[in-house]
Design a protein that fits this description.
The protein is mainly alpha-helical. It contains nine helices and no strands. Helices cover about 65% and strands about 0% of the residues. Pfam families: TPR_16, TPR_6.
């Protein structure tokens, strides 16, 4: 039998090489299509909604600052009233009803007007009050309370009684003796309801109840302040505090 020639083997080799090249091309083409095919989309993460704003909580330190400023205003007003009373001349005697003769001018009296000396109790009371105020401003509260208490004992209805009672209560408050403070402020409101310090005393009493965690009494004092002194700065402050104390719906 005749063996195939060399050219036959050459054709077979070329055919096998071409077949191998086609398979390689098909493999890489399939891989390219698979890589180009997009997969299922992953949903993008949604941003978290911003937290809802919470109602502002009243800052006790800012409340105290407002009250201290109000107290300083009251002290200035009291000082102005005292100075005005000291410089106002006493009213003269009523006219006798007689008409002066025509052509005659009245001659001034050669005698100086009589000066009524101040009562000793008033002078002593003023000294006690002034000493108590000096001690209070120096933050020597126990010593200040002693002077104010002595003044109130000697002159319970004296011209400085409301002020002495207020500083007496506030000296307790400054030492965080809130139970004693609220009692003194309550006495001021009951005994001197027309004093310009009465609204401040009621607001201070409400703060004392707040420090004692007596919420019902705190709100009751604020409502009383709004009812009795609605036009005062303390009354308007009490209205704001009552709104803040209402439960959020």
């Amino acid at each position: 039998m005749k063996q195939p020639g060399w050219h036959i083997w050459l054709l077979v080799g070329a055919f096998l090489a071409a077949l191998s090249a086609c398979e390689t091309y098909s493999f890489y083409s399939a891989r390219s299509r698979a890589a180009a095919t997009p997969g299922p989309e992953t949903p993008a993460a949604q941003p978290e909604p911003p937290p809802e704003p919470q109602p502002a909580t009243p800052d006790p330190s800012s409340q105290m600052k407002v009250l201290e400023e109000r107290l300083q205003q009251l002290e200035r007003r009291l000082a102005e009233l005292e100075q005005r009373q000291a410089t106002t001349p006493a009213p003269g005697k009523a006219a006798s009803g007689k008409r002066p003769d025509k052509g005659r001018a009245e001659l001034p009296s050669s005698q100086p007007p009589a000066v009524t000396p101040a009562a000793p109790s008033t002078v002593a009371g003023d000294r006690l009050y002034n000493e108590g105020l000096r001690l209070y401003q120096s933050k020597k509260f126990p010593a200040a309370r002693t002077k104010f208490s002595q003044y109130l004992k000697e002159q319970p209805r004296g011209p400085k009684a409301a002020e002495a009672r207020y500083y007496l209560g506030d000296s307790f408050y400054q030492e965080k003796k809130y139970a004693e403070a609220k009692e003194e402020f309550n006495k001021l409101v009951l005994q001197h309801p027309q004093s310009i310090l009465a609204p401040a005393a009621l607001l201070r009493q409400a703060y004392a109840y707040q420090q004692l965690n007596q919420k019902a009494n705190y709100q009751a004092a604020l409502k009383k302040l709004v009812q009795k002194y609605p036009q005062s700065p303390e009354g308007r402050e009490a209205q704001k505090l009552l709104k803040q104390a209402e439960p959020s719906r």
